[in-house]
Amino acid sequence: MTDYYEILGVTRDASPEQIKKAYRRLARQHHPDVTGEDGGSDEMFKDVSRAYDVLSNPEKRRSYDLGGDTSSGGMGGGFGFQDIFETFFGAGSGASAQRGPIPRARRGQDALVRLDLDLAESAFGSHREVQVDTAVVCPMCSGTCCRPGTSPRTCEVCGGRGSVQRVARSFLGQVMTSQPCAACQGFGTVIPEPCTECAGEGRVRSRRTLTVDVPAGVDTGTRIKLTGQGEVGPAGGPAGDVYLEIRERKHETFVRQGDDLHCTLPVPMTAAALGTVLTLDTLDGPQEVDLRPGTQPAQVITLRGLGVGHLHIGGRGDLHIHVDVHVPTGLDEEQTAVLQQLATLRGEERPEARFSAANPGVFAKLRDKFSGR
Predict the structure, then answer these.
(1) Residue 128: DSSP 8-state
(2) Which pTM was predicted?
(3) Which CATH class is domain 4-90?
(4) What single DSSP character describes residue 305?
């Protein structure tokens, strides 16, 4: 008995897909239209076809595996026109690939606009007006693409189908294929008299002013979506969206980390030692900062709720003040004498060197993080 598995070059447990793949490869290789007058290839093509006829049909394959009769004459069973057609032309070929005319009106593209904000606007939210340059519906033709008083006309070449059929010859005979109509570009209609304002596009460029409420808590990279405010599509198709991408300007005093704010407060050594009350200009206006006696360098004073608003959830972050104690330089004789007297009173005329674990301070770590160290 002829070994059909050997002819197709597959194992006896090959899947239907593996059998089909092997057949397609061998059919292309040995078909008479490819090999010409080579008699050996012609016979091989017939053997390959018979093998596929049997092994592609579950009942015939079962009977063949049991040693039974699988003859049925011709190329019946699982071997059919669609298999040969896909082998030589690929799936999706033929008239079924074209499904009617293409809609002329299509959705427009989205637009991206950058919006620069001050820190206060990001912290509290703001009401802004933004200018955008986008496509809008043509005011002359209202998106019809035609000169006023005219209308689209059915394409005479394709009869409104948007596609035309071609007849190709193959070893199977005449094969019908379908492709977009070149006369109407697949739309099924033509514009006999295009609108002079939009040149038949159904849309024109225009600058518009949009109003937007920026919520509190936005940050650099935040995007606000304005639905339906983007580009109008061809032939007056639905508009896309506008995305406003926030870019926050650098503040001269405050550094933002999430919804918290950080700043450095320089104070004289004497003020840190004796304590004092300083006034700091915050986003909420002047605020008193109580500097306790003995305030140390890098000490952090936190003012609750004076940071940036939390996006969409309410509440605010905090303001962290990092104390930077300034040690005086360029002392005159009187100032030097006073400090020497203080050192004597504190028993610090000859201080001993005592090492402790390094502590760079919270703000130093923060500074290193923002500088990328």
Answers:
(1) E
(2) 0.62
(3) mainly alpha
(4) T
